[in-house]
């Protein structure tokens, strides 16, 4: 019996092709990172829509794969040495897929770890800070009269944007060549528009970052990936 059939998550999200990599996600920036990687790398996979509602991400089935109840997560029945591997955390998944496919992460140790450095910059800085800005600027936190929290995250987002703006001087991509660092970073930079946060982060004053986002979303694989798994109609 194929291994993915024995995993508890398949009781809620059954695998049509259990010999294929299974991708459990929703098209937020964190989810799109991985769908972009899968499309760019040409890996065969089966997507499963996991909404952000508690009924999905806090279900026993999903928690059996990711106890941290966050998308995305994967099961690869053809993992290292042919054994099944189950992974959550988008950054870890990107590194795994890059090494599995031999693409978008240099084999040269220096370049490899510099790429992972910028991936971690997104994971530890851009993602959490932009997410908090979204909460305090657009979502529930926006109703708070005290704007101290919103301003704190707006200023930090502005600082992080300046780091990216400087890094992109003379470069098309964060490492010069397109890599998993770009797959992680660009969807989050694009998310500022969704949050309506361009004005409070000084986005209009930037040159390199807007052009970078435009380049990224012009890629055919990104166009395919940006709504995988497809949002509900």
Automatic annotation (TrEMBL):
Pfam families, alphabetized: GST_C (PF00043), GST_N (PF02798)
Enzyme Commission designation: 2.5.1.18
GO molecular-function terms, A-Z: glutathione transferase activity
Keyword Transferase included in the entry's annotation: yes
InterPro entries: Glutathione-S-Trfase_C-like, Glutathione-S-Trfase_C_sf, Glutathione_S-Trfase, Glutathione_S-Trfase_N, GST_C, Thioredoxin-like_sf
Keywords associated with the record: Transferase
Family of the protein in this entry: Belongs to the GST superfamily.
UniProt protein name: Glutathione S-transferase
């Amino acid at each position: 019996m194929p291994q993915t059939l024995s995993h508890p998550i398949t009781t809620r999200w059954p695998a049509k092709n259990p010999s294929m990599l299974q991708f459990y996600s929703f098209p937020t920036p964190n989810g799109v990172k991985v769908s972009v990687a899968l499309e760019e790398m040409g890996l065969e996979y089966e997507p499963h829509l996991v909404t952000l509602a508690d009924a999905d991400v806090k279900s026993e089935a999903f928690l059996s794969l990711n106890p941290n109840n966050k998308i995305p997560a994967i099961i690869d029945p053809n993992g290292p040495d042919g054994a099944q591997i189950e992974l959550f955390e988008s950054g870890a998944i990107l590194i795994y897929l890059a090494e599995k496919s031999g693409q978008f992460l240099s084999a040269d140790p220096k370049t490899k770890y510099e790429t992972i450095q910028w991936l971690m910059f997104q994971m530890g800085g851009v993602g959490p800070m932009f997410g908090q800005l979204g909460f305090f600027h657009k979502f529930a936190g926006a109703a708070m009269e005290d704007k101290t929290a919103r301003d704190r995250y707006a200023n930090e987002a502005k600082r992080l944007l300046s780091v990216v703006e400087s890094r992109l001087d003379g470069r098309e991509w964060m490492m010069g060549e397109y890599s998993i660092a770009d797959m992680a970073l660009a969807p989050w930079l694009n998310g500022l528009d969704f949050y309506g946060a361009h004005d409070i982060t000084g986005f209009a004053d930037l040159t390199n970052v807007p052009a970078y986002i435009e380049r990224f979303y012009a890629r055919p694989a990104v166009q395919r990936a940006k709504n995988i798994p497809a949002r509900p109609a």
